[in-house]
Amino acid sequence: MDQFTLNLLVVGATFALYFGIAIWARAGSTAEFYAAGGGVHPVLNGMATGADWMSAASFISMAGIIAFGGYDTSAYLMGWTGGYVLLAMLLAPYLRKFGKFTVPEFIGDRFYSGTARVIAVICLLIASITYVIGQMSGVGVAFSRFLEVEASTGLYIGAAVVFAYAVLGGMKGITYTQVAQYVVLIIAYTIPAIFISLNLTGNPIPALGLFADAKSTGEPLLTTLNGMLADLGFSSYTQQSDTTLNMFLFTLSLMIGTAGLPHVIVRFFTVPKVSDARSSAGWALVFIALLYLTAPAVAAMARINLVNTVYPEGTTAAPLAYEARPDWVKNWEKTGLLKFEDKNGDGLINYVASKDANELDVNRDIITLANPEIADLPGWVIALVAAGGLAAALSTAAGLLMAISSAVSHDLIKGQINPGISEKGELLAARVSMAVAIVVATYLGLNPPGFAAQTVALAFGLAASSIFPALMMGIFSKRVNSKGAVMGMLAGLLTTLVYIFLHKGWFFVAGTNSFTDADPLFLSIKSTSFGAIGAMINFAVAYFVSNATDDVPADVQELVESIRIPKGAGAATGH
Question: What residue ranges are annotated as transmembrane (predicted)?
Fold first, then answer.
């Protein structure tokens, strides 16, 4: 059976499974649409949260970013993992105790202000749509190779799939679909990693293989990689080259951005009790760790395999002739995501650090997906990775679209515009807003502002600067009032958004940027790191405005006090 047919069969089978689950778990009420009826088992919710969390950025893009960035890009691992711990410890149980469906609803009630709720909706929409752009671009990368279509066509196919099961099933359908998607994506990620680790080190556990000796040299794998890169003029894989300030701020931005992303927070409303929210957070961390412990090994081993492909006789010998390039290079060339330019006319693939002499341009987002082909693994493994990559992108896209639709229908339409809307009308509004969000994200995904992981990092920065401070102050401070919260969110969001647009182009339109991340506007702080600065601005503005204006009403202060008591939470209300 040829590879294309095998890809179609495996990907088609997983899509059939997702559609079947969506039909079986069709939402019949707003409680089921927004929070899956609040009856999901903590282990299943942990698995669904893992799929929701491990997006195209984690599955498709992160290993590629680390493979080419080395030590500097390890911040992706530290920030996203540490952020989830922060979310589980400081936010999830308290928000579950509060008992509302959405983050804007909590902010609106805690800060006793419809304006605060609307501002929270705006912050949520901007961060979530930016996040979805990264997911949709990841879908385009996966489809472009494995279904042998243009990346734009892949985007349209992915959008149609998400539309079918997310709009149909709501949170109930999404939850059980994500359980299936987690199983698919974790198997798809670990099986090729095990094969490659065995090939390079003889160790079947990739995380241990990363620190084992390479078969080819008898030296530690990372030492071998550093030697190969040094021969080609690249910087050391294990040495820091970025500034400590930018790395610290980037890690912090990813951490607090994680804790401010509404599509993960809302998962803790799908379980019956507060204790179940804590339990499902623990399970989710276990399921997430399975991929995040493997990713650094996948990255390092992929870089080694790439260099070995181009320099089969070693980095001190002549590179491979272009005419003798392997099939995987030919396959990815068709997508336009891998390009060769014979700059010196010798017919050889010169892969070196110098931009003027380097002839191989490799898109970072293809590394994980191409890894099985580079390592010459069986066809079924390649097909499985295709299904896993799509599962990762589509599961998170669905969760984000759920957060967007609930913000528009529940917080904006029902909460502010038409409080008397019927449950049927609210469900219709939720589905329409989800469909509109899919169209917008698909359009913007055609020309993303960076690789999938970089685009997602921008979304984390926006959530870090706007939503996270409001949640933290709402739970742990009785002094911050409505005016402080509104001004803080606006200040944090606008400063971060302007800084990003100055570096990535206004509204992500290419060519309209004034600076680049290689030449940042302020000190060494890149656009992906500025969310931490925006959060500090948010906290400071909220604090000073609150102290200069009215005290928080006594009943709201009592509400804040009650949130911190870990007993007595019932089902989610307000629907």
Answer: 6-25, 77-95, 116-133, 153-170, 182-200, 247-269, 281-302, 380-408, 428-446, 452-472, 484-502, 522-545
Q: What is the mean pLDDT of residues 286-291?
A: 89
Q: Which of 366, 364, 341 is nearest to 352 (CA)?
A: 341
Q: Which helix (H) or strand (E) holds 429?
A: helix 423-445
- One-letter amino acid of 19: F
80's CB contacts (< 8 A; 6+ apart) are: 58, 254, 255, 258, 292
Mean pLDDT of 331-339: 86
3-class state of residue 450 by DSSP: coil
Q: Six-digit token pair at 363?
A: 């898109």
Local structure of 92: helix, strand or coil: helix
pLDDT band at 304 (very low <50, low <70, confident <90, very high): very high
303 close to 296: Cβ distance less than 8 angstroms: no
Positive or negative CA dihedral for 436, 437, 440, 441? negative
Q: How far apart are CA 123 and CA 461, in angstroms?
A: 11
**Digit-coded pLDDT (tens) for 118-152:** 999 999 889 988 888 888 888 778 777 777 777 77
Instruction: Report in angstroms the alpha-carbon separations of 344 from 320, 329, 347, 413.
Output: 14, 20, 8, 61
> How crowded is residue 235: how many other Cβ atoms within 10 Å of its Cβ?
16
Average pLDDT over residues 177-183: 82
Query: Both tokens of residue 461?
Result: 């920065």
Hey, what are 381's tokens? 């493994």
Count of positions (residues) in the chain: 575
Q: Which residue has the tokens 């679909």?
A: 177
The pair of structure tokens assigned to 119 is: 């501002």
C-alpha to C-alpha distance for 571 and 155, rounded to whole angstroms: 38
Give dist(CA 42, CA 61) in Å, integer.
Answer: 29
Distance, CA of 395 to CA of 131 (rounded, Å): 13
Q: Is 169 within 8 Å of 29 (Cβ atoms)?
A: no
Residues 6+ apart with CB under 8 A from 300: 66, 67, 210, 221, 222, 225, 237
